[in-house]
């Protein structure tokens, strides 16, 4: 069983931001989930090194293009490593093998007379690096994604891919494969994009304007349009056209933000159809992050969330937890450093980490540093165990991107129940009386074993903290494939070193 997950490859003309963090971290969570189920996994992420924006960014710093790309690539890799993203392949579109494969795809399509050369006059957005129709622009004539960038009137001779011959075929594919685009709101949006005849897609840029790119194999005066080049990475990563790529490609799922639905949902499938290649299995689309109050993030407003700042203040798992927990499926979600801090303290700190610390320290002190041995279980014990098992079981099943917040909410609800259980059972009081010490040991065991179950599940979401917690419990290595199971924490075994899992983070002083 295979599963191949991709993130977009990110432009290197700016530093990694919260959008990069979200897509990559969610991809990692999905990979960890499927790997826990026994799937053979491939996760690719990386950087898009070509195009006008990157060329201009290098020039602005007075750097040679290759030196600039090496610098930016290193920065992105280091940040993704800090995110705990366990990628299998890091894409660089400057690699020779990638460039050769892109040229091969272009030549194949060109040989079918599906690429034509013609003059084009149109409106060009440098931010999107694409020509725009009037219907793509706002009432003020701006690009909705890059309102501060002036739309330029451009007249050029370029090469174009014929799109309209494939529109009906793509619409039929969407009808025949209801899961091809998820969630449904974005599936419907894609169908609207395909409701009217498609204009030909400009797939080149003249070298007189852009030099940073893949040279067209049939005309050395042009380089490949950056999106055509970038999208092909999903195939070149798995060694297309030379390698045995088909088994991976059949199980390929692209994770994308809603702003790049058109390139992935229209351009890419038609490129593949034109080249005679099968389409990916699925596009999983997510919305965007906004500042508190739903205000768009802006450096001038000062509400941009820097993932590095969050990690410096609270650690990577605070960032991973918030991003995974709070993105709604079909609408934008709010984020700020303060919202992350509040969620970290209330959920990870107070509800999950503090309970582990309290129970493990008490067991360590009063049961010779060992996991207490359970006696007979009561109805209250069994009710809690059942609830925890059901909450964790969601991580023993296949998780799609929109499922993640609800699966984590189930863990939070289970943590609430565990805190309520421990308060009601009051093992600290039970221990004071010789007659109730066995009951005290049972309550502690039930709580510690339930925490083991939750932290085994959370290895998929906050792997660093979850492994630390399991080490504190001295829990045995989880089985593979994994499923939520009770009574796997051996009573009488020594506990590990007890430490604070999620130290409280106070608000910065004004």
Give an account of the 3D structure:
The model has no long low-confidence stretch (mean pLDDT 93). With 510 residues, the protein is of the alpha/beta class. The relative contact order is 0.11. The chain is elongated. Helix 13 (337-366) crosses helix 15 (404-425), helix 13 runs antiparallel to helix 17 (437-458) and helix 14 (379-393) runs antiparallel to helix 15 (404-425). A hairpin with a 4-residue loop joins strand 4 (115-125) and strand 5. The protein has helices at residues 18-36, 52-60, 65-82, 96-111, 167-176, 184-193, 226-231, 233-236, 246-249, 261-275, 307-314, 316-326, 337-366, 379-393, 404-425, 427-430, 437-458, 463-473; strands at 2-11, 40-48, 89-92, 115-125, 130-132, 152-161, 181-182, 201-202, 204-206, 215-216, 219-224, 252-257, 282-286, 289-290, 333-334. A 6-stranded parallel beta sheet has the order 3-2-1-12-13-7, sandwiched between helices. The protein has a 4-stranded antiparallel beta sheet with strand order 5-4-6-8. It has a 3-stranded antiparallel beta sheet with strand order 9-11-10. It has 2 domains: 2-286, 3-Layer(aba) Sandwich (Rossmann fold), CATH 3.40.50; 308-473, Isoleucyl-tRNA Synthetase, Domain 1 (Orthogonal Bundle).
